[in-house]
Specification:
Layout (H helix, E strand, L loop, with lengths): L3 E5 L4 H10 L3 E5 L10 H7 L8 E6 L4 H11 L3 E4 L5 H11 L3 E7 L17 E6 L29 E3 L8 H8 L3 E4 L4 E3 L2 E2 L1 H19 L1
Parallel strand pairs: 1-2, 1-8, 2-3, 3-4, 4-5, 5-6, 6-7, 7-8
Antiparallel strand pairs: 9-10
Helix pairs in contact: 1-6, 2-3, 5-6
Bound molecules: ligand LARABZUK.
Ligand LARABZUK binds next to strand 2 and strand 8.
Catalytic activity: N-(5-phospho-beta-D-ribosyl)anthranilate = 1-(2-carboxyphenylamino)-1-deoxy-D-ribulose 5-phosphate
Protein name: N-(5'-phosphoribosyl)anthranilate isomerase
Keywords: Amino-acid biosynthesis, Aromatic amino acid biosynthesis, Isomerase, Tryptophan biosynthesis
């Protein structure tokens, strides 16, 4: 099965073009005001046009109100919602019913016991995104450029669909794929030259590293 690749936190046409040229299956937009990757819903709606028919456009929110989600869905027209806060299974159910869109639930992981938090979302979340816990003092629930022990994911039930996230980059993606063998991967800081500034060269290098690792895997 093909590996899904999400490039998250896009804000410019250049970054979008690099993500699509590399073969991204998903492109993510951040709607969290404190993030250096924050984008206005209408601007995300303009940018996401380039992805139509090529990659799924993902709206990333954190404990967002219905009013804000309404605005995002109306102006950005996402293919998928990513809920990256402390949303409950009931909240996921409500969001799915309100918009009829698939929902990816982000969960932070630092030890095997954290995988227990998957269970209440089974049958509700369409996919999971496993990310590292934010470092002390960080105001961001995601996009911190830190990784967790990928070996933890070997304890996951085989039927759980997920993206591996957190601190990935061109240098470590080969090890991550070998250790966790995830159905999908997600990257943000690892393809940036500064917080919130995507670098097309780093994006290209990341895709090249993924291809090298997956070619090896197939061999
Ligand atoms: O990226 C952000 O700024 C962000 C802010 C608030 C909630 C989620 C956020 N990012 C979500 C993502 O899917 C990131 O790609 C993921 O956390 C991995 O980030 P990184 O470790 O920088 O690759």
């Amino acid at each position: 099965m093909a590996l899904d690749i999400k490039i998250c936190g896009l804000k410019t046409d250049t970054a979008m073009a690099a993500a699509l040229a590399g073969g991204a299956s998903h492109v993510g937009f951040i709607f969290f005001a404190k993030s250096p990757r924050f984008i206005e819903p209408s601007e995300a709606g303009r940018l996401r046009e380039a992805a139509t028919g090529k990659a799924s456009a993902v709206a990333v929110t954190v404990d967002a109100s219905d009013a804000f989600l309404d605005e995002i869905v109306q102006k950005m027209r996402p293919d998928m919602m990513q809920l990256h806060g402390s949303e409950s299974p009931a909240r996921l159910t409500a969001v799915k019913a309100r918009y009829g869109l698939p929902v990816m639930k982000a969960l932070s992981v630092s030890q095997t016991a954290d995988l227990e938090r998957v269970k209440p979302f089974i049958g509700i979340a369409d996919r999971f995104l496993f990310d590292a816990k934010p470092p002390k003092g960080s105001e961001l629930p995601g996009g911190n450029g830190v990784s967790f022990d990928w070996d933890i994911l070997t304890g996951l039930d085989a039927g759980v669909d997920y993206m591996l996230s957190g601190g990935l980059n061109a240098a470590n993606i080969g090890d991550a794929l070998r250790l966790a063998n995830p159905p999908g991967i997600d990257i943000s800081s690892g393809v940036e030259s500064a917080p919130g500034v995507k670098d097309p060269v780093l994006i290209e290098q990341f895709f090249r590293a993924v291809r090298a690792a997956t070619d090896n895997r197939a061999a």
